Amino acid sequence: MQVWQAALIALFCYLGALTTPWLVGTTGGWYVLTRPLVAGFLCGLVLGDVTTGVLTGIAVQAVFIGLITPGGAVPSDLSFVSYLGIPLALIAHAKPEVAVSLSVGFGVIGVAAWQLLSVGNAAWAHLCDRFAEEGDLAGIIRVNYLAQIGTFVLRGIVPFLVLLLGSGFAQSFIVFLNNQVPWLVTYLSLLGGALPAVGIAILLLQIAPSARLIVWFLLGWVMVVYLKVPTVGVAVIGALVAIIYYWFFSRMETENVEARNV
Amino acid sequence: MSDTMIERPDDMAGGPTPPTNERTLTRGDLNRAWWIWTFFNLSAFSMERMQAPAFVYMMSPILKRLYSNDPEEIKGALKRHMVFFNTEPQTGVIAHGVTAALEQQRANGSPINDEMINSVKAGIMGPMAGIGDSMIPGTLIPILLAIGMGISQGNGSPIGPLFYIFAYPAIILLLSYYLFMFGYRYGMTSMRELAESGFRRITSSFAVLGLIVAGAIGASIITLKTPLAYTSGKLTVSVQGTLDKIFPQLLPLLLVIFLWYGMRRRGWTINRALLMTLVIVLIGYLPGLIGAIFGIGWLQAFRIF
User: Fold this and answer.
1) A217 and A254 fall within a common domain
2) A236 touches chain B (CB under 8 A)
3) Helix, strand, or coil here: B85?
4) How many CB atoms lie within 10 A of CB A134?
5) Interchain pair A128, B56: CB under 8 A
6) At what angle do helices B27-40 and B159-186 cross, to 10 degrees?
7) Contact A197 B218 (CB under 8 A)
8) Is the CB of B204 less than 8 angstroms away from the CB of A147?
C-alpha cells in the first residue's frame, strides 16, 4: 500500500469515527462513512478496484447490519472493521467471505481501543466542570474541539501505522494461508457465509418487541426464496404492508375504545 | 442544587417580567443550537458524563440570548447542564428543544428550578434513546442499507453505496430538525403529545416494515449449504437439492432462529452468538478438516457444511 493510500484510508477512519464532529456529527460519520457498505466502496476507490471493494463491503455489512450502539456500548468496533479489515483484505486479494472473518477479528480488537478512549475522555468532562464553576462558557466550547486529540490519535494515527506496516504482512499472510493451510481458508469462507446470521438475529431481536411479530420476518424471507423478489422490491412491498398495518391498527384501537365505552 | 433558587429571590418576587423586557429565542438561535448539536453531539463523549459537554455547547447560543448580561445565571446554567446526559443523538433532540423552551420561560420569570429542567431532560432522553435506537440504527438504517446492498449485490456497482450516502443524511437531518423544533414548540407536553398522536402505531408499523426487509436481507445474504448426499441404488440425491425444492435457504433461516432464540431467551451476548456460529460451522466442517489434515479423502463425504 502506498503512503497516500494508507493516509487517505486512515483519514476516512478518523472522519467516520463515532466521536468525530466534522462530517455532520454521527449522521455523516459513524452512520454513513463507517458503514461497511460505504467503506468498501471508498477503500475500493482508493485502492483501485471499486467492484471488489463494494462486494467486500456488502459481505462485511451483512454481519453488522443490525449494529446499535446503545449508551456508547459498542459490541463490535465498526471503525476498525471498516477501515482496517476491509482495506487489508482488499490488498491481500482475499475473497469477500475471508474478508468477513478478518473484519470480525479487527472489530473485537477495536472494542478495547474504544473503551480506552471513552474512559479516558472523562478527563475532559472534569475540565468542563472547572470551567462551569468559573462560568467560562468559551472554555467548555473549546473542550469540545480539544477532545478530538484522543480520537485523532486512536482513529487516525494508529490505523495509518497499521495500514502502512501491516499491508505487506497481510498480503503474505493470505498467500501463506492459501498455499499451506487451504482447509483453514475453506473454514473461514464457510464462516464468512454464516456470520451474517448473527447480524440478522440481532436485528430481529431489536425490531421485534414480541416473538409473534416474527411472521413478518418470515414473510420477507419467503418473498425472496420462493417469489425471487429483489430486496428493493421487498422494501416497497414492505412499505405498503406497513401502511395497511397502520390503518388496521388504528381501526382496532378505535374499536377497542368504543367497546370499552359501551 | 437549589442554590440558584436562593440566588434569585428578587426575580421571583417580581413576578412575571413585563413584556417589554421579554427575552425570546429567535429562529436563528434555535437553528444554531441544532446545528452545533448535530455536529458535536459525541465529540467529547466519555463514559462518565456522556454527551454533557456537547449539550452545554449546544445551549451556548440559547444561554447567550437569555442571560447575556448576567454572569451568575450563565454560571448556574453551565453547572445545570454539565450533568450526565445521553440519548440517541439524532432523534433525542426533542429533549433539547424542550430544554430551550424551559430556559426561555425561566429567563422570563417562571419559577423553574434546576431539578425541574434536569428531570424533564432525563425524562425525555431515556425514552428517546430507546425509541431512537430502535427506529434509526434498528430500522431505518438497515432498510436503507438493504436497498443499497440489493442494488450492488452481484455486480459490485457503486450506485448502492452512493444511494445510501445521500439518502440517509437527507432523511435523518430533516427528521432531526423537525423533532428539535417540535420539542421547542410543545415545551413540557411534548412526550404526551407524541403518545396521543399515535406514536406507538407509527413505531409498530415501522417495525413491520423493518422485519419484512430484515427477512429479505437474511434470505439473500447468508450462505450455509450442505454437501451431504445419499445414494440409493444408482440414484444419488443431494440433500441440499432436496431442501431447495421444499424450502430454499432453510439452513440459514434455522441458524438465524437459533441465534435469535439464544439471545432472546438465554440472554446470550453478541460475542456469545458469534462464538456459537464459529462452533456450529466448525462442527459441521470437522470431518473435512480432519480429512484434509490427515489426508483421508472419504471423510469429506461426511461434512455437514
Assistant:
1) yes
2) no
3) strand
4) 11
5) yes
6) 130
7) yes
8) no
Show me where the domains of chain B are located.
1-221, 229-302
Of residues A257 and B297, the one with the higher pLDDT is B297
Comparing CA positions, the residue from B141, B146, B203 lying closest to residue A30 is B141
| Domain C-terminal end among A187, A207, A227 | A207
**The three three-digit cell numbers of residue A77, written as one number:** 468496533
Asked if residue A257 and residue A197 are part of one domain, the reply reads: no
Q: How many C-beta neighbours within 10 Å does residue B28 have?
A: 10
Amino acid at B137: P
CB–CB contact A35 B207 (8 Å): no
A157 and A242 inside one domain: no
Residues 6+ apart with CB under 8 A from A88: A102, A163, A166, A167, A170
Query: Using one digit for the tens of pLDDT, what is the confidence trace for A167-190?
Result: 888 778 878 888 888 888 888 888
pTM: 0.82
Under an 8 A CB cutoff, do B75 and A132 touch? yes
Counted domains in chain A: 2
Q: Are A257 and A128 members of one domain?
A: no
Q: What is the mean pLDDT of residues A231-239?
A: 88
Let me know whether A169 and A192 are in one domain: yes
Contact residues, chain A, for B215 at CB < 8 Å = 216-224, 234
**Number of neighbouring beta carbons within 10 Å of residue A146:** 14
Residues 6 or more apart whose CB falls under 8 angstroms from that of A46 comprise: A5, A8, A9, A87
Q: Do A147 and B162 touch (CB under 8 A)?
A: no
CB contact under 8 A, B214 and A200: yes
Q: Do A147 and B202 touch (CB under 8 A)?
A: no
CB contacts of B274 in chain A (<8 Å) are: 104, 195, 198
User: DSSP secondary structure string, A39-78?
Assistant: HHHHHHHHHT-HHHHHHHHHHHHHHTTT---GGG--SS-H
The residue in chain A having the minimum alpha-carbon distance to the alpha carbon of residue B151 is: A232
Give me chain B's average pLDDT, please.
Answer: 84
Q: A114 and A74 in one domain?
A: yes
Chain centroid to Cα B126, Å, comes to 12
Q: Following CA atoms A53, A58, A64, A66 in sequence, which dihedral angle do they give, to the nearest 10 degrees?
A: 140
Contacts with B, A 153-212, CB within 8 Å: 182-183, 186-187, 190-191, 193-198, 200-209, 211
Same-domain pairing of A230 and A116: no
Q: Length of chain B in residues, anyone?
A: 305
Give the ipTM: 0.85
Q: Structural domain of residue A227, as residue ranges?
A: 211-262
Residues 12-31 of chain A with CB under 8 A from chain B are 18-22, 24-28, 30-31
From B148, B252, B271, residue closest to A37, measured CB to CB: B148
CA dihedral sign of residues A129, A130, A134, A136: negative
Rounded Cα distance between B216 and A141, Å, is 45
